[in-house]
């Protein structure tokens, strides 16, 4: 008789063991965006959760017609995990971070000393994944999340995942996730996507010299993501514009954003611009010499150019002389801007976002020798020369500008 | 091919067993321990440890070939009954404490990374229970289970690299010498007993079909294990970078959480499954060896009845350590102390063998 009970009990031991950590899909509230803000209290943080409503945008939408696509709430707590626990005193569903992909940090909080403590301790929780995308918002993160309602994407997680893919095409923002933060924060400057929903538009001649919030825009989605926030030693210290961010990516040895559209002064008609697509098909080569008192860095960037449009309607394709003019113009313009950016990183930030530290590290035999060398400090006085190798590859799908009265 | 079930294992089964003994190290806390001293060059340590452990292994291989007898028989015939029993006890202690400490560490990983609400004792009982089930069926069964699962296991483990390629940059392993060559050599030697099981595996020699099967089987599995551990440690550094890699508790599990296949994330569930099965096989080998040494020490004819009490004792003793940091500290002490014993032991045996052989030749 006793054996019979054993036969029933033993399998149940194996079968029911999952019930301790069981997850009922119905009872879950998936937080898709997390916002971090400086709290008025010391050593506290305002955590904003945007919890997605799975019924919206699915076949069961008819049941929940009056429900919004997501719910947003802010909790003040000592860290993310306790905020999550506290939030469950308000939200009916158990908050789950496993689908969380985006963390938005208010600029004020990013500039405070406490930021590194919160981020550094959050990775202890296995629910926080190292692939989560970091975004710094100019305003408070809670305000950003509240006002960021995309018209094309009903569901917030889709919006962020599409926006994350766009950076590859534009190069206006860096790729910033938690893993990269921990990789770089000790060695170099770390760039984070800069975003804003507050607008103070400024019209500029150069098409990409904007930071988030400055892009002249009328109507459309409220959030702009362009430029980057610069972090050093776990703290935000400044910003770069979209254009500068592009140059940073260009100067890195391995960058994942390999092509983008840029515009340059028309060499014949100086008031107008020429739009070209810049492609980096080969790797940038960087040589770092640490033997001298001030390190020497030699950068060689191969760039391929495709001419997309020239509003001045001058024909650059047919004569070699004009091609050379265009090439020189692009070279001069790019080179000047790049050197300005390098100077800015050396003098203003005192560190480099180009991940050259990895190449400097190669020159040392042991880790201790590298640490004693103090690359960040030496970089400030480094002698850096950038060489651009520009090839004009194609002139678009028109042989000549269209004939409207004036021919060429 | 249908083979007669004669209780002996062949080359491939032995290779698979050794693979499950060693390849799994890249998924547990071994990399953590090595990164602590080896910094960004910690991947060299397994290779140094292998080189150091290989010498006593070859010495023992020579003695075993000469006498055509397993480790246990050699010890008893060369050292006598009393010292032989003591040596068996020593081996039992080494393997049992390794079983206890490592299995507890694995349980902690399951608990922290996947089942945070499930009580540790329960997870522990399930893990050791599964290992006991495999071990109880005998060595041939362990070998066959390992052989069937080993290709899948290696495939799943290695395919992870393709899922995380985006974040990979091999330049992060520089400076090549890490903490300095002297530190690497010293630590590689002190920690060489991460491969100490290779010496204890000689106890299984009587269950292996041929001498050649044993030699090639162990060496193949061992080399695959060393290469995998070193290779994955390069991957860890190339993805997390130094010094961040030193702060990560379970690099493999963290890696599986970062892995994406296109837009599909959360691949860690596949790895949880493979890892669970692999660890059950891993500990079944330990259980089997522990029971084997204990039975020889007590001069029992059968050792299968000892499996259950040892499994039970392992769970009870393993639960004493409150968390993984205590467990890791214990593991380091164990590795360091057993290194001395395991490296020197084959030379002692060899010396005695020479001495006795010389006497015999004189007498004859």
Which properties best describe this structure?
heterodimer; A: about 400 residues; alpha/beta; GMP Synthetase, Chain A, domain 3; 14 strands; B: about 375 residues; mainly alpha; 14 helices; about 0% strand; globular
Report what the structure shows.
The complex is a heterodimer of chains A (408) and B (364). Chain A has helices at 2-15, 80-87, 107-110, 114-122, 141-147, 156-170, 178-184, 242-251, 320-349, 357-362, 367-373, 375-379, and strands at 28-38, 45-52, 70-77, 94-96, 102-106, 133-137, 190-196, 224-232, 235-240, 259-265, 273-279, 285-289, 296-309, 383-394. Chain A is an alpha/beta fold and 408 residues long. Chain A folds into two domains: 26-242, no CATH class; 252-408, Nutrient germinant receptor protein C, domain 3 (GMP Synthetase, Chain A, domain 3, 2-Layer Sandwich). In chain A, the strands form two sheets. In chain A, strands 1, 2, 3, 4, 5, 6, 7, 8 and 9 form a nine-stranded mixed sheet that branches. In chain A, strands 10, 11, 12, 13 and 14 form a five-stranded mixed sheet that branches. In chain A, strand 8 and strand 9 form a beta hairpin. The longest helix of chain A has 30 residues, at 320-349. Chain B has 364 residues and is mainly alpha-helical. Chain B has one domain (11-358): Amino acid/polyamine transporter I (Up-down Bundle), CATH 1.20.1740.10. Chain B has 14 helices and no strands. Chain B has helices at 11-22, 30-38, 44-67, 71-114, 120-135, 139-163, 181-190, 197-200, 211-240, 244-247, 251-258, 268-297, 304-318, 324-363. The relative contact order of chain B is 0.22. Classes of the chains: A alpha/beta (408), B mainly alpha (364). Chain A binds chain B through residues 14, 17, 20-21, 98, 126, 129-131, 161, 179, 182-184, 186-187, 253-254, 256, 358-359, 361-362, 364-370, and chain B through 39-41, 112-119, 122, 126, 166-167, 169, 171-172, 174-180, 239-244, 247, 253-254, 257-258, 260, 263, 265-266.
């Amino acid at each position: 008789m006793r054996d019979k009970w054993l036969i029933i009990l033993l399998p149940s031991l194996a079968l029911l063991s999952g019930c301790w950590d069981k997850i009922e899909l119905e009872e879950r509230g998936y937080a898709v965006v997390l916002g971090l803000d400086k709290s008025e209290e010391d050593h506290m943080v305002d955590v904003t959760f945007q919890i997605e409503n799975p019924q919206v945008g699915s076949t069961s939408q008819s049941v929940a017609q009056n429900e919004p696509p997501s719910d947003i709430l802010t909790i003040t707590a000592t860290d993310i995990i306790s905020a999550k626990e506290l939030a469950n005193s308000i939200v009916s569903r158990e908050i789950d971070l496993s689908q969380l992909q985006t963390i938005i940090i208010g600029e004020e909080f990013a500039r405070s000393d406490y930021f590194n403590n919160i981020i550094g301790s959050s990775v202890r929780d296995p629910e926080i994944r190292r692939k989560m995308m970091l975004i710094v918002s100019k305003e408070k993160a809670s305000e950003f999340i509240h006002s960021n309602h995309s018209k094309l994407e009903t569901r917030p997680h889709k919006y962020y995942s599409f926006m994350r893919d766009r950076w590859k095409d534009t190069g206006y923002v860096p790729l910033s996730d938690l893993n990269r933060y921990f990789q770089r924060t000790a060695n170099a400057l770390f760039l984070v996507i800069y975003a804003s929903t507050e607008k103070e538009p400024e019209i500029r001649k150069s098409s990409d010299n904007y930071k988030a919030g400055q892009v002249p825009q009328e109507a459309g989605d409220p959030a702009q993501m362009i430029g980057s926030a610069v972090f050093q030693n776990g703290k935000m210290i400044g910003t770069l514009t979209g254009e500068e961010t592009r140059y940073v990516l260009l100067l890195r040895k391995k960058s994942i954003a390999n092509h983008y559209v840029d515009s340059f002064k028309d060499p014949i008609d100086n008031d107008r611009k020429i739009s070209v697509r810049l492609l980096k098909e080969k790797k940038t080569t960087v040589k770092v010499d640490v033997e001298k008192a001030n390190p020497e860095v030699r950068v060689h960037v191969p760039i391929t150019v495709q001419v997309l449009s020239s509003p001045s309607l001058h024909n650059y394709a047919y004569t070699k002389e004009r091609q050379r003019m265009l090439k020189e113009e692009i070279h001069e313009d790019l080179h000047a801007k790049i050197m300005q950016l390098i100077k800015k990183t050396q003098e203003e930030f005192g560190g480099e976002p180009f991940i050259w530290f990895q190449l400097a590290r190669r020159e040392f035999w042991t880790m201790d020798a590298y640490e004693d060398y103090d690359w960040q400090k030496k970089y400030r006085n480094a002698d850096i020369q950038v060489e651009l190798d520009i090839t004009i590859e194609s002139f678009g799908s028109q042989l000549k500008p269209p004939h409207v009265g004036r021919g060429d | 091919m249908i083979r007669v079930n004669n209780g002996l294992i062949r080359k491939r089964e032995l290779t698979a067993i050794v693979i499950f003994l060693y390849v799994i190290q890249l998924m547990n806390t071994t990399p953590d321990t090595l990164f602590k001293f080896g910094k960004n060059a910690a991947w060299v340590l397994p290779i140094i440890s292998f080189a150091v452990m290989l010498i006593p292994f070859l010495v023992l291989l020579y003695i075993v070939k000469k006498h055509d007898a397993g480790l246990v028989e050699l010890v008893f015939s060369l050292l006598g009954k009393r010292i032989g029993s003591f040596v068996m006890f020593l081996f039992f202690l080494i393997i049992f404490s390794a079983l206890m400490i490592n299995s507890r560490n694995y349980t902690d990983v399951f608990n922290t990374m996947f089942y945070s609400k499930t009580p540790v004792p329960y997870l522990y009982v399930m893990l050791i229970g599964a290992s006991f089930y495999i071990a109880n069926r005998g060595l041939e069964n362990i070998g066959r289970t390992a052989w069937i699962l080993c290709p899948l296991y290696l495939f799943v483990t290695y395919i992870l690299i393709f899922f995380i390629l985006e974040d990979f940059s091999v330049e992060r392993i520089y400076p090549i010498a890490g903490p300095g060559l002297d530190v690497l050599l010293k630590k590689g030697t002190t920690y060489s007993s991460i491969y100490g099981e290779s010496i204890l595996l000689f106890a299984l020699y009587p269950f292996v079909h041929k001498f050649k099967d044993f030699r090639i089987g162990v060496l193949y599995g061992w080399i695959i294990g060393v290469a995998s551990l070193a290779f994955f440690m390069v991957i860890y550094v190339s993805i997390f970078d130094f010094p961040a890699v030193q702060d990560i508790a379970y690099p493999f599990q963290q890696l599986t959480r970062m892995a994406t296949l296109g837009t599909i994330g959360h691949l860690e569930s596949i790895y949880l499954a493979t890892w669970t099965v692999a660890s059950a096989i891993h500990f079944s080998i330990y259980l089997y060896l522990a029971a084997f040494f204990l039975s020889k020490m007590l001069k029992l004819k059968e050792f299968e009845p000892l499996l259950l009490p040892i499994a039970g004792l392992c769970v009870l003793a393993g639960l004493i350590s409150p968390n993984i940091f205590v467990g890791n500290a214990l593991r380091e002490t164990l590795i360091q102390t057993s290194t001395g014993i395991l490296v020197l032991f084959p030379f002692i045996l060899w010396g005695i063998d020479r001495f006795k052989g010389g006497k015999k030749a004189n007498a004859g």
